Amino acid sequence: MTDTFDFVVVGAGSGGCAVAGRLSEDAATSVALLDAGGKNDNWVVTTPGALVLMVAGTVNNWAFNTVPQKGLNGRIGYQPRGKGLGGSSAINAMVYIRGHRADYDHWAALGNTGWAFTDVLPYFKRAEDNSDFDSEYHGKGGPLAVNKLRSGNPIQQTFLQAAQEAQFRIREDFNAEDHEGLGIYQVTQRNGERWSAARAYVHPHMKLRDNLCVETAAHATRILFEGKRAVGVEYRQGKELKQIRARREVILAAGAFQSPQLLMLSGVGNAADLGKHGIAGVHHLPGVGQNLQDHPDFIFGYMSDNPNFAGISLKGTPRLVRAILQYRRERRGPLTSNFAECGGFLKTRPDLDIPDIQLHFGMAMVDDHGRKRHGGTGFSCHVCLLRPKSRGTVALASNDAMQAPLIDPNFLGEDDDLEAMVAGYKITRRLMETPALRALQKKDVFTSHVRTDDDIRNILRERVDTVYHPVGTCRMGVSDPLAVVDPKLRVHGLEALRVVDASIMPTLIGGNTNAPTIMIGEKAADMIKAETRAG
């Protein structure tokens, strides 16, 4: 017998957890939530500092690769994505950023009614339980814990001093009216522990709500259709191939890579491309997998003898032992660090209306996402381009649902992106060369030889990669021929099928994408409930 629920949600990432959690608040509504990973409720996930164990490897991580990137000298990039309940919010650096109001107003200007900043702000606030800020821009009492770091790292003050020396403004709250400036990030933590989307919306209810069924180790293989109506999902759990049915809707929330992949595997996409893989077309929708956007990111790295940085060294062992004991005792100290403790938003040109780059200042020296290790301690500073012009794709490698998709972010595919990154490099170097930060540097690991603009272009092509914010592959739109969903997030041309994750973003927002994706889940749940009431 096949299980049947009102809603079947595929993917328990930030959007999937939020929409499943909210829909299951109504005891009369049954919700099934499927995810290919595990429960993600152990110390590796809840201890913020343990993110180093996940991002660089395959623990709770799909650890995807890109196809060779023409703009990056043919290099293959790395795309870590969270696997298991909470999705990428279970492995990320926990930075709580919404993006600029202009990002959402732009969505609305494209014809996406209901997605302007004034429309989405209530959903950001509804999600939020902010322990530090209380204003028209913030919420209290929501499921998502947001607060200041508890690492107590004095380097934060050094960073602020450097920002002042470089004559950048200091910003305390990056999620209010304006966010230009540098400062200390807020994080999705509570009591020094990671607060993933699963911890916010799913974990507390798994045993208490009879109407919420959570299936882990359940890898979706295709959406089931009757004509043009989505009626269920086929998934693999262990060696078994199972089916689950949806009375009302299938909600796809598998992320910017796997939502388009599952649509294509199910016969929804460019019919000619699907035919090459022997997939029978259900609905020709050429925008599926198009419009991939991500923030290209460059990292400055330095070795340092300062004892407040993390790294691999024998003399650092006693500090680690003390940190573990402090964390166990009071949930404070180095193990509560998200590493990217500081940062902010800057303009590379004074004539810009809004910031076009973002910095993440890290309390460790990072090389190749932590996959290349260096002995000793140090620090890093990321600089990413917030609204790149380059557009990439997600395509099928085969008709095998267990095989990773072909991911092509097309980093630096547009010359304008490269030149904007050159400007971003220069403004970040200005910060790195302040007396406050120069005093911390023992060795410049990557950029000591960089002098000219051509040197900068070369090092960018050699070292740029993702800062983990892929979006756009099932983009929202109305008259747009490549739009995949409408402003209610319903898939064009099909019934009872919605997409609720970062793939629906028509354009990339200027900031980290976790909080916006949770907002999308909150708003989707509200729209679904309103349609139900209407009848």
Compose a concise summary of this entry.
This protein has helices spanning 14-23, 43-46, 51-55, 101-109, 117-127, 155-165, 197-201, 255-265, 271-276, 317-330, 415-432, 435-438, 453-463, 514-534, and strands spanning 3-10, 31-34, 64-69, 75-79, 128-130, 144-148, 181-184, 186-187, 189-190, 193-194, 212-215, 218-226, 229-237, 240-252, 268-269, 283-284, 296-303, 311-312, 340-346, 357-362, 376-385, 393-395, 406-408, 443-444, 465-466, 497-499. With 535 residues, the chain is α+β, with helices and mostly antiparallel strands. The protein has two domains: 1-57 and 79-117 and 193-293 and 470-535, 3-Layer(bba) Sandwich (FAD/NAD(P)-binding domain), CATH 3.50.50; 150-184 and 296-385 and 413-463, Cholesterol Oxidase, domain 2.
How would you portray this structure in words?
By secondary structure, the protein is an alpha+beta fold. It has 2 domains: 1-57 and 79-117 and 193-293 and 470-535, FAD/NAD(P)-binding domain (3-Layer(bba) Sandwich), CATH 3.50.50; 150-184 and 296-385 and 413-463, Cholesterol Oxidase, domain 2. It is 26% helix and 24% strand. The protein has 14 helices and 26 strands. The strands form 7 sheets. Strands 7, 17, 18, 19, 20, 21, 24 and 25 form an 8-stranded antiparallel sheet that branches. The longest helix has 21 residues, at 514-534. The radius of gyration is 22 Å and the shape is globular. InterPro entries: FAD/NAD-bd_sf (IPR036188), GMC_OxRdtase (IPR012132), GMC_OxRdtase_N (IPR000172), GMC_OxRtase_C (IPR007867).
